[in-house]
Structure of Matrixin family metalloprotease:
Amino acid sequence: MKKTLLLLAVCMGIVSSSAGIAYAATLGKISYWYSDKDIISRWSTKRYVWAGMMDKSITTSAFASYVSHAMSQWRTAGISSDGVDEKSDANINIYGGTYNTLKAMEPSLSSSNTGLTVYDGTLTYEGDWQYGTSLKKSYKIGSPVNVYIVQIDGKTSNGYKKTTTHEFGHALGWRGHSSNSNDVMYGTASEVTTLTSRDKNHLVQIY
């Protein structure tokens, strides 16, 4: 009888201890992974985008065309966003300017950056996606996300479109970079302006 009671007490202790452990949620299985990082993020709310030049280094109309291109590329992929006129209505802000202008706004900007995306809101861990036998951590994005597009002398329109589309991908949750130089989400500047199936499939699958 004493042995039975002791065994029961031990079993109850195991159950009680297990109840206090917080297990990560498994969000489901994903079919694609093209990032060099094991994390990915997404918005649970609608994306509202404000964009503006912080100086006169790029014309307002040209900058607007780069942002429009980026939004259109990701909208066609399956992740839509709306532009807004008032910055107070936005949860994604896209700033253009010279390195010095943007550096004064965002100290983490490096002289080697052609663009930078900063998650200035909350990133809330929501669980793991299963990709094959590995797990990829997933985070919900909170407002605001700030994107910086650096003016560089001699840079072409396609170069700016690539940078803006690339950084907007980060703003939507594409973390890390692709290792394929044909992808917009490749980590080095180029003039690739159209999202590839790799760019799209990697992120769209979690929305």
DSSP finds five helices and nine strands in the chain. Confidence is low (pLDDT under 50) at residues 1-22. Residues 2-19 form the longest helix (18 residues). Strands lie at 26-29, 39-42, 47-53, 81-83, 92-97, 115-119, 123-131, 134-141, 145-150.
